[in-house]
Amino acid sequence: MARVFVYGTLKKGQPNYKHMINTAKGLAKFQGRGRTVEKYPLVIAGKYNIPYMLNIPGTGHHVAGEIYSVDDQMLQFLDEFEGCPEMYQRTLMSIEVVEWEGKGSAGEGRAGAEGIMECFVYSTTTYPPEWVGLPYHDSYDSSGKHGLSYVLRESR
């Protein structure tokens, strides 16, 4: 099992969460909530209002999201879904655990003493330079006050 940190449309209550609970695509078990240890720019960009975490450590905000434990099948699905490695790149990042729900033995999935764990995150280094000038968010909600509703793939 691998740990994945999701910050956008795959979170609970967001437009693509249905994929995280579709066992035909693999297994994803919600473990808890977290935020990036380093700051990153989280922008909403493109004509479909897609959330992107730009891989520019030290700029932006500590981005909030959810931590999942996923099997190999789900990880492969997520790579395809996220257009990895062209649109997003899957990299390991340090995530601070804010709230932990994960159950299991003490050795399984617990954060370190500081509450920090390494998770795969889909961020991007392949973006138009003007995206750096977009507003930065610390948390994503498709129906947030930004007014930039995500356009589902089925509707494009």
From TrEMBL:
GO terms for cellular component: cytosol. Its EC number is 4.3.2.8. Pfam families: GGACT. The active site is at 82 (proton acceptor). InterPro entries: AIG2-like_dom, GGACT, GGCT-like, GGCT-like_sf. The keyword Lyase applies. It comes from the Eukaryota. One of its GO terms (molecular function) is gamma-glutamylaminecyclotransferase activity. Keywords: Lyase, Transferase. Residues 4-122 form the Gamma-glutamylcyclotransferase AIG2-like domain. The keyword Magnesium does not apply. It catalyses: epsilon-(gamma-L-glutamyl)-L-lysine = 5-oxo-L-proline + L-lysine. PANTHER family: GAMMA-GLUTAMYLAMINECYCLOTRANSFERASE (PTHR12510:SF4), TROPONIN C-AKIN-1 PROTEIN (PTHR12510). Catalyzes the formation of 5-oxo-L-proline from L-gamma-glutamyl-L-epsilon-lysine. Belongs to the gamma-glutamylcyclotransferase family. This is Gamma-glutamylaminecyclotransferase. The lineage of its organism: Eukaryota, Metazoa, Chordata, Craniata, Vertebrata. The gene is Ggact.
